[in-house]
What does this fold into?
Amino acid sequence: MTKDILQMKNAPASDKVGRYEFLAEPFHCDCVGRLFLGHLGNHMLNAADFHSTARGFGMSYLQTINRAWVLSRLAIEMKTMPRQNERFTVETWVESAMRYFTSRNFHIVGADGVTIGFGRSIWAMIDTQTRQPTDIFSIGDGAINQWIEKDKPCPIEKGGHVKMPDGAELVRSIDTYYSDVDINGHINSVKYIEHIIDLWPLEWHLGCQVLRLEIAYVAEAHGGDRLDFWRVDTGPREADVEVRKNGAETVCRARISFI
It folds into this structure.
């Protein structure tokens, strides 16, 4: 796998669309041999960083000027998940860019070349000292503009607005620790996804898989914060979830459906 990662990092930046191959490693798969959605999310975020780094606006450069990409919204829709020891490809491209936000899409393709899923994401660039949004176009005199790909389709819906209705129940509270914190100093985006999926018991996951998950990040949480998970079932295999920190502030909202 190390060799594959080196190949991905050294992929030529001659195309607006980046294509990166990954392996569904056994210890990244669940008890029925499917890649965990959290690990798929990590691979998607890695693909985004490989793509942006090769084109001059990735995290390795941004850190030198006290800037960082922060995930604002993510939607993942999967027909099926990669299976243990299968290789799959994540394609990624920038769909649009505004002063403070940019949209990035994903296409997940199985080893046989057949589409197995898509993703949509919204990113903000922040000043790592002030934690405030900063101008994306200030990087390389708007370098991101030359990599926008408007013609490649991403057929899934954009993430909607999740507003918790009356009747939501507090279903779990957890403490956060070292392993929850990422390079930006806040709770890792994918950790929320993993904690949300864990709200359903093992027996549920033996008979279901995630069809679609969309999540909107509202505020930052940090190591040591306590996270409360509020859930309301909106259908037999659908639910909305809100995560709050320390009994008060909302940090993210999610909508999840299973097949």
User: Anything to note?
Assistant: The helical segments are 2-9, 37-54, 59-62, 189-197, 202-207.
